[in-house]
């Protein structure tokens, strides 16, 4: 596989590899592609005008074509996947076709095994849904849907059900991402979090699913109302967070919470739990 892909890349190489860019340049370039302008709604809020074309630099397009040809040859179900999904896997591996292809093929195999029926029913998630811990509402200034999770409502329990809850939630979130967008933002609220809420196995399982099977979906994670005791759990989870995900996590001080959220989210789109206008909607009702 390595030699086959290497020859293809060499034939299509260009002078400047995207891997030479700084992380800041890559983030800015991706964000610029997500929307071109905003229009003002009657209520004064700004709604992004989404450009849903698959814009990429030439090198990325060439590598995407090579990757598609390879994965379709390995697994025919890859033909049902659009270029946006393949590009997320490619970008998650810094445009390394071999690594991205392996990651994507692993995803297809995992999906068939983890969700043989193609979906997860709410009837399978009674305990986790009863916690009433995950919600969606509104979009940020870039059009990313907003997810809110309350850490003090999570209770450690059956790991397999929690894993299915995570998959159910991520599928639901992704289905609500507007056409032309690819990411969501999340507010992780830890007010009232205590040791009874600590679930290292669950945290690590959720992190693995997000990073390995839903790459480049998280736009930003705001962790708010953080109690000091949470840092004990954080130290055990942090080593398992990849570099790209770490760069998207922001711990927000209580005194800066309002200003930080309003920098990125219009008041009309901010959940009412944080002084905005919108009521939170449970994830299963979205």
From TrEMBL:
Region (Disordered): 1-47
Recorded superkingdom: Eukaryota
Biased composition (Acidic residues): 22-32
Residue ranges with Basic and acidic residues bias: 8-21
Gene3D superfamilies: CRAL-TRIO lipid binding domain
Pfam families (alphabetical): CRAL_TRIO
Listed InterPro entries: CRAL-TRIO_dom, CRAL-TRIO_dom_sf, CRAL/TRIO_N_dom, CRAL/TRIO_N_dom_sf
Domain CRAL-TRIO: 122-282
Protein name per Swiss-Prot or TrEMBL: Patellin-4-like
Species whose genome carries this gene: Cucurbita moschata (Winter crookneck squash)
């Amino acid at each position: 596989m390595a030699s086959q892909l290497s020859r293809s890349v060499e034939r299509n190489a260009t002078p400047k590899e995207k891997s030479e860019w700084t992380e800041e340049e890559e983030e800015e370039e991706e964000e610029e592609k997500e929307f071109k302008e905003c229009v003002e709604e009657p209520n004064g809020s700004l709604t992004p005008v989404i450009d849903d074309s698959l814009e990429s630099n030439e090198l990325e397009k060439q590598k995407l074509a090579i990757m598609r040809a390879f994965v379709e040859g390995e697994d025919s179900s890859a033909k049902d996947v659009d270029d946006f999904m393949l590009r997320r896997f490619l970008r998650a591996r810094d445009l390394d076709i071999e690594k991205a292809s392996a990651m994507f093929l692993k995803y297809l195999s995992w999906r068939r095994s983890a969700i043989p029926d193609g979906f997860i029913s709410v009837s399978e998630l009674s305990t986790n849904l009863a916690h009433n811990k995950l919600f969606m509402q509104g979009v940020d200034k870039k059009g990313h849907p907003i997810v809110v999770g309350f850490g003090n409502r999570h209770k450690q329990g059956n790991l397999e059900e929690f894993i299915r809850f995570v998959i159910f939630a991520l599928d639901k979130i992704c289905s609500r991402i507007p056409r032309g967008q690819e990411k969501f933002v999340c507010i992780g609220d830890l007010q009232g979090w205590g040791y009874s809420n600590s679930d290292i196995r669950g945290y690590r399982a959720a992190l693995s699913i997000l990073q390995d099977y839903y790459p480049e979906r998280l736009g930003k994670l705001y962790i708010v109302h953080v109690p000091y005791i949470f840092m004990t759990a954080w130290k055990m989870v942090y080593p398992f967070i990849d570099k790209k995900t770490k760069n998207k996590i922001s711990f927000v001080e209580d005194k800066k919470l309002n200003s930080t959220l309003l920098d990125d989210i219009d008041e009309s789109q901010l959940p009412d739990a944080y002084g905005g206008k919108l009521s939170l909607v449970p994830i299963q009702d979205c």
